[in-house]
Amino acid sequence: MASLSCVLRSGRVTVRDALNQAMDEELERDERVFLLGEEVAQYDGAYKISRGLWKKYGDARIIDTPITEMGFTGIAVGAAMAGLRPICEFMTFNFSMQAIDQVINSAAKTNYMSAGRQSVPIVFRGPNGASAGVGAQHSQCFAAWYGHCPGLKVVSPWSAEDARGLLKAAIRDDNPVVFLENELMYGVPFEMSEESLSKDFTIPFGKAKVERQGTHVTLVTHSRYVSFCLDAAAVLAKEGVECEVVNLRSIRPLDVETIEASVMKTNHLVTVEGGWPQFGVGAEVCARVMEGMMGPHRPPH
Amino acid sequence: MLNGMATIFRNYKQAVVSSRAFADFTPKASFEIKKCDVHRLEEGPPGQAELTREQGLHYYRTMQTIRRMELKADQLYKQKIIRGFCHLYDGQEACAMGIEAAINPTDHVITAYRAHGYTYTRGVPVKQILAELTGRKGGIAKGKGGSMHMYAPNFYGGNGIVGAQVPLGAGIALACKYLGNNQVCVTLYGDGAANQGQIFEAYNMAALWKLPCIFICENNKYGMGTSVERSSASTDYYRRGDYIPGLRVDGMDVLSVREATKFAADHCRAGKGPILMELETYRYHGHSMSDPGVSYRTREEIQEVRSKSDPISMLKDRMLSNKMAAMEEFKEMDSEIRKEIEEAALFATSDPEPPLDALCDHIFHNDLPLEVRGTTPWSKLKSSS
């Protein structure tokens, strides 16, 4: 898993390999970083995201856990409190529900409650949202649930560059980060720039990326649905409708500035996501846009 | 004539006290302690414990400080100066003191919400504990944590969700093993928490990975108002770790707690993996300040424990009957402690509350200042790390 060996002959990198490479580099860079979760070691990862890492780093740093989410998530959070920098993998974020108390009450709130004395530098990562026919219990999107909570940073990469840059930033962040991947994106290859392949490439949280410029309608989206929006934009372009596709990248903090600038330009907004509509990411985007339209000098009457 | 003799003796006693000649006191004595029930162990801690005069005075001072601090908190709560949750530790002082006496400051401790005693033994001054209870900026968590969320180096609180602290403690132990620093983590929980599934998950991983974790169940016989018989199919909490060796310890005797904890720490440091201790103890107050504590147990029961098993009295009686200290010394310590608590309470009631612009601080650690939404989208608050 050397840094450039996963670059395909075409020069492209899959999301899976970008995540793998990012973890490998961060494990090498900082001895306190370690990975734990179900099947991450000897199985090479349920979705092969941690392929080769156990062979390279061994039992002490790549840890297979029993199927006990609440317990191992608590253990990961405790290890972070005591000075390590764990990456806690959920086989899917549906299973994080069993451990959600540890994510919210033990991780997210602690720095605040301790007035900054006790930090929790941890990354919770895994596939989130819909997959292909896995059933209702395995298909929930948790962006809105985690995005609701102060003390957490929540990111949702789309491309290989997103995955690499956001994961490195997450591991280097001294705060709890919820890193929402998508199973169906793992095998998708992307071009990667020279800059994005460098060892210290990180993407700042709270900055969305405009993946496609447009003038008629703003499509605000995240994760796999960026692909859907780009496909839709290609279809609409033939009809003379130019879509601006905004890839959120970051759910919390949300880049309201980029969204507002786009909506001011196009005057039309569609939010596209994998979560349910009520109290969802799209609902928050709409609320923020409405509030922004009011402005500080024009309170609602 | 007799009066004269009495005067001489009185003066002699005073002379002894003021000069504190060590030759007049027994410097060290050995006490028999109750034998521990053991589970999956060939032998338990020794049946004897040594106590030096210095140790005895230190343990007394610490336990009495905790006792008086908790009673002051009770008083402040009834005056509505402390509000919210307040779970008092009086009666259980021997547990916190005995554990601290057996471990190093570099070892780690995590407990649940009945945490004021441990906050003190782990080094936070009474002043900062009381000021945290009264929600002032001089509190150990700057007034933002409250009773259940106080922290210190190698002390991870203060945790409000029953049982959640146990996997956290196993994780701290994992860090100790990972870093190879020969430290242990004391992970406390109550009889009420002992049935939590996540505790068994933590037992499993701690045993599998041989984590240096001392699981300690402080069994004070009641989880809120539910007695152990009504909550647990098995009340042998020291056996509940199954494959993890266990000890049942007299939690009202500071020496028993100390010896057992030493035994447990040695076990962990030898790389043998986790161990479980059940401390049989008792709380005088109800579960929290909103519980009078007599609807599910009798006043007679509380009185009986107070008169027969009070940890502070037991220690004092032991020292007096072995001439390890004089009654006056204890009285003097009591008086010093009373003064310390009064001063701390004065601070806690006069220190200002945290300023409004600190409301959002510390949402994140080590981050640039950020804007936080206020009650309206155009009223913003600021958060500094």
Automatic annotation (TrEMBL), chain A:
Please list the residue ranges annotated as the Transketolase-like pyrimidine-binding domain: 13-188
Domain of life of the native organism: Eukaryota
Pfam families to which the protein is assigned, alphabetical: Transket_pyr (PF02779), Transketolase_C (PF02780)
- Which CDD domains does this chain map to? TPP_PYR_E1-PDHc-beta_like
One molecular function GO term is: pyruvate dehydrogenase (acetyl-transferring) activity
The EC number of this protein is 1.2.4.1
Quote the InterPro entries the UniProt record gives.
PDHB_mito-type (IPR027110), THDP-binding (IPR029061), Transketo_C/PFOR_II (IPR009014), Transketolase-like_Pyr-bd (IPR005475), Transketolase_C (IPR033248)
UniProt record, GO biological process: glucose metabolic process; pyruvate decarboxylation to acetyl-CoA
The alphabetical list of record keywords is: Carbohydrate metabolism, Glucose metabolism, Oxidoreductase, Pyruvate, Thiamine pyrophosphate
Q: Which GO terms describe its cellular component?
A: mitochondrion; pyruvate dehydrogenase complex
Recorded catalytic reaction(s): these are: N(6)-[(R)-lipoyl]-L-lysyl-[protein] + pyruvate + H(+) = N(6)-[(R)-S(8)-acetyldihydrolipoyl]-L-lysyl-[protein] + CO2
Tell me the cofactors it needs.
thiamine diphosphate
The record's annotation in Gene3D superfamilies points to: 3.40.50.920, 3.40.50.970
Q: What does this protein do?
A: The pyruvate dehydrogenase complex catalyzes the overall conversion of pyruvate to acetyl-CoA and CO(2), and thereby links the glycolytic pathway to the tricarboxylic cycle. The pyruvate dehydrogenase complex catalyzes the overall conversion of pyruvate to acetyl-CoA and CO2.
Q: What is annotated about its quaternary structure and interactions?
A: Heterotetramer of two PDHA1 and two PDHB subunits. The heterotetramer interacts with DLAT, and is part of the multimeric pyruvate dehydrogenase complex that contains multiple copies of pyruvate dehydrogenase (E1), dihydrolipoamide acetyltransferase (DLAT, E2) and lipoamide dehydrogenase (DLD, E3). These subunits are bound to an inner core composed of about 48 DLAT and 12 PDHX molecules. Interacts with DLAT.
Question: Matching PANTHER family, A to Z?
Answer: DEHYDROGENASE RELATED, PYRUVATE DEHYDROGENASE E1 COMPONENT SUBUNIT BETA, MITOCHONDRIAL
Q: What is this protein called?
A: Pyruvate dehydrogenase E1 component subunit beta
Which species is this record about? Gadus morhua
From which lineage does this chain's organism come? Eukaryota, Metazoa, Chordata, Craniata, Vertebrata
Q: Which gene encodes it?
A: pdhb
UniProtKB/TrEMBL annotation, chain B:
Gene Ontology terms: biological process: glucose metabolic process; pyruvate decarboxylation to acetyl-CoA
**Might you give the EC number(s) for this enzyme?**
1.2.4.1
Q: What does this protein do?
A: The pyruvate dehydrogenase complex catalyzes the overall conversion of pyruvate to acetyl-CoA and CO(2), and thereby links the glycolytic pathway to the tricarboxylic cycle.
Reactions catalysed, semicolon-separated, are:
N(6)-[(R)-lipoyl]-L-lysyl-[protein] + pyruvate + H(+) = N(6)-[(R)-S(8)-acetyldihydrolipoyl]-L-lysyl-[protein] + CO2
This protein's cofactor list reads:
thiamine diphosphate
The domain of life is: Eukaryota
What is one cellular component GO term in this UniProt entry?
A: mitochondrial matrix
The name of this protein is Pyruvate dehydrogenase E1 component subunit alpha
Recorded hits in Gene3D superfamilies, A to Z, give: 3.40.50.970
**Taking every annotated instance into account, which residue ranges of this chain make up the domain Dehydrogenase E1 component?**
61-355
InterPro entries (UniProt xref): DH_E1, PDH_E1_Alpha_Subunit, Pyrv_DH_E1_asu_subgrp-y, THDP-binding
UniProt xrefs under NCBIfam families:
PDH_E1_alph_y
| Gene for this chain | pdha1b
Give any Pfam family that matches.
E1_dh
Record's keyword terms, sorted:
Carbohydrate metabolism, Glucose metabolism, Oxidoreductase, Pyruvate, Thiamine pyrophosphate, Transit peptide
GO function terms (MF aspect)? metal ion binding; pyruvate dehydrogenase (acetyl-transferring) activity
